[in-house]
Amino acid sequence: NLLSVAYKQVVAARRIARRAIAMTEQEMPESAHAISQYRGKVEAEIDALCDEIIGLLDSHLIGQASTDDNKVFYMKMKGDYYRYRAEFKRDVSQAGSASQANRAYRAALEQAQVLPPANSGRLGLALNYSVFFNEVLGNASEAIALARKTIDEASADLANHDEAMQNDSIQI
């Protein structure tokens, strides 16, 4: 989990910087070339970090996960990092990253079926997959459908669990 937190923080800082740079680029067309070059450097950093963590997930973490919870968590991470790439890639590269993210999220969702519907990892996966549908694919109806289905299943299952799990689930 510490590895996940570390990568998330490092990549999140660059994603925020990239968004700010992109806004500045639009606001200052006279400096667009220089700003675009800097944006490219930040995007290259995001790309390299995503490559690195996806490589670790594929080579070690997913295959060696000791529990279904861990496996789903790592598979979701893989989808997340492909999604982060898809946020800034263009054309064929964007389509490739989006396709890889979709594949990773779908595989994680299949694996998550062994977990209780109110499991926080399963809920977090559905939330992130919904964000992917909406923000990357522009498919709000699919995002809403997945979120509704997940909430309905979790609501029906919530009473079957202790208070700690209920609190974890409700927070998501």
Low-confidence stretches: none
Helical content (DSSP H or I, runs of 4+): over 70%
Largest sheet: none
CATH homologous superfamily assignment: 14-3-3 domain
Radius of gyration of CA atoms, rounded to a whole number: 18 Å
CATH fold-level label: Delta-Endotoxin, domain 1
Mean of the pLDDT scores?
A: 92
Strand % is under 5%
Topology:
Layout: H1 2-27, H2 32-61, H3 68-88, H4 91-112, H5 120-136, H6 140-158, H7 163-171
Helix pairs in contact: 1-2, 2-3, 3-4, 3-5, 4-5, 5-6
Could you give a quick summary of the protein structure above?
The chain has 172 residues and is mainly α. It is built from seven helices and no strands.
Q: What does this entry look like structurally?
A:
With 172 residues, this protein is mainly α. It has one domain: Delta-Endotoxin, domain 1, CATH 1.20.190.20. Helices cover 84% and strands 0% of the residues. The chain is built from seven helices and no strands. It is globular and about 60 Å long. The mean pLDDT is 92.
List keywords for this structure.
Delta-Endotoxin, domain 1, 7 helices, 172 residues, 14-3-3_dom_sf, 84% helix
